[in-house]
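Case study B.
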Amino acid sequence: MSIGQGIGWLDALRQQSRTGFSAQGLPSPKVESWKYTSLKPLDGFAFARPAPTKGKTGGGDAALAALGGTYLVFVDGAFDMKASRADGAHAMPLSMALQSKADAVHQYLGHIAGSDDPLTLLNSGIIDDGLVLMIDGTTIDKPIVVEHISSASKDGVALHPRSLIVLKKNARATVIERFSGAGRYLINPVSEIVVEDGAKLTHIRLFEDDETAFNLSHLSARIGKDAGYESHVLATGGALVRNEMKIELASSGADASLYGAYLARGKQHTDHTTVLRHAAPHTTSRELYKGALNDTARGVFQGNIYVAKGADGTDGNMTNRTILLSEKAEMDAKPQLEIYADDVKCAHGATIGNLEEDALFYLQARGIPERQARELLVEGFVAEAFGNLADDAIEDLLRARIAAWLAIAKVAEAA
Amino acid sequence: MLEIKNLQVEVDGKQILKGLTLSIDKGQVHAIMGPNGAGKSTLAHVLAGRAGYTVTGGSVLFEGKELLELKPEERAAAGVFLAFQYPVEIPGVSTMNFLKTSVNAVRTAHGGKEFDAMDFLKFVRSKTKPLGISDDMLKRAVNVGFSGGEKKRNEVLQMALLEPKLAVLDETDSGLDVDALRIVGEGVTALRSPENAMLVITHYQRLLDYIVPDRVHVLAGGRIVRSGDAGLALELEKTGYAEFAGKAA
Ligand SMILES: Nc1ncnc2c1ncn2[C@@H]1O[C@H](COP(=O)(O)OP(=O)(O)OP(=O)(O)O)[C@@H](O)[C@H]1O
Ligand SMILES: [Mg+2]
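Model:
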């Protein structure tokens, strides 16, 4: 049973999207943006619906829950009331929002994400429960934490959580989302975000899915006048993670800062594909993605800064840096600039390399054993992507996760 | 404490040290001077265990044990310290975290207990003050964006924290203004004790004004070509190394 069934516009959206997806199917490698990430591993995947969760609960992350504030847990695409904790009326599951503020949801849902991307269509054809956060001009101090847990007891379950975040004029909030689970499932989350004039959203997302699972996440955001969207992504999980973001800087003074760190080992594949669309004059963007790949892991970074005609005075800067911890790890980095405006300051760069031997020796010469020295260097390298996080508690939490990953990845042995 | 015998070292097939012999006793300070490219840093790196150098002959004994067989971290734990001529920048690793990891690694290597965060902070503060190192510097990434002088003071701080038995200072005085030179000179002198030894590589007499050496050696062409007392450094400052140019081949 789907959420919000019987709501006319929602039924119609689902119907149209299903038709649209059937016509296209999953993206093929012939599509430019899917050149480096193959969905072939999904051949034969059942795309089954999850069994009703029937009171299945918990499994969240204690450190995140301890941050206080609203804590929303979704298990297999359904809201888990028992494990959740609401703090104020701003954040709620989509299933509830469709009852209490259906009109407001209608105004945005499906309008930010667009309808050309097949995976978004696949999501819109089903729409599982997710976060709805709508804030009027106020500041929410404590981070709003959202867990998407897949308990998939059988292979081939597909989940399509749908989230909507709308920060009205001058509102401020921090949202932390975590994807986790057990088993060989597919999670295909779609998030739509509006940051209105003068508002600021800090958005942290942790991709910590099972190492046999697929996460094909899609986020679209529209940033208003003098508004800011600050994103921090840490991807450590999944057999395949695709973190796709489309940010539209819609009005002058809009700023987007995209920071990300990816760590992959074994046969993991981690893909970070972003489009920063400068659609108005005097908009700014910063992007820094850093990662480390071990074993035979593969990484992809596709960053596009698009400066539309008339978006004069745009300032954009994009950097991607990867260290390969093993000879068999591979990285494809494709930063791109497309500029159709004047007086634009844009720069991009990508590097792929190994751990700095000089730095390693320096640490060892100070008594730090080689393995620990390598871990410290990798941690420092990727955690630099979180250096701009204002909240030290969250930065510490992210660093601790990087350290935990390094402790299992046996970085020293591979190098 | 340190006994280098007929040490021969190659880098990329090129012989840099060509039979270097030098011994330093406990409580002594030796200075090494010599022209650019003579092999001074090469010697320092080989003592600390940096990769890329091939020892083709000779031996180095530290407290009677073969030093060259140890990994760099084992040498540090044994009490060998190198203050780098060019300290390395490590983005993303805070100086404080680096110092704590280093000190704790050496302590645990000796079977000791790690410092907890509070005790370590006290310990560090007791050493940063005389060196004029601010808390802000400790928060920043290791050596990243540090001025030349700040990097060198950071090296002396690490030396003060690790309390090595043998400290090799590779041009710790270069790039310092007069005040920083005094701070570093006094800082290093304060660490001198009858229990440890120092090998000070320098181009100038000015550091040796603070830390008066027991012996001064001239390294040229991969060998020690002359040794003398503290007076030799003063003499070299006037005459330069022209006298040794012939021997450098
Ligand atoms: N990786 C290398 N490959 C080739 N030659 C090298 C390498 N490293 C050092 N050398 C050479 O070894 C010689 C000695 O260098 P070293 O750095 O030890 O000199 P130094 O005495 O410390 O000089 P300075 O006073 O300028 O610091 C130089 O000729 C240098 O070019
Ligand atoms: Mg040198």
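The CA atoms of residues 40 and 219 of chain B lie 7 Å apart. The remaining cases will be described in the next quarterly update.
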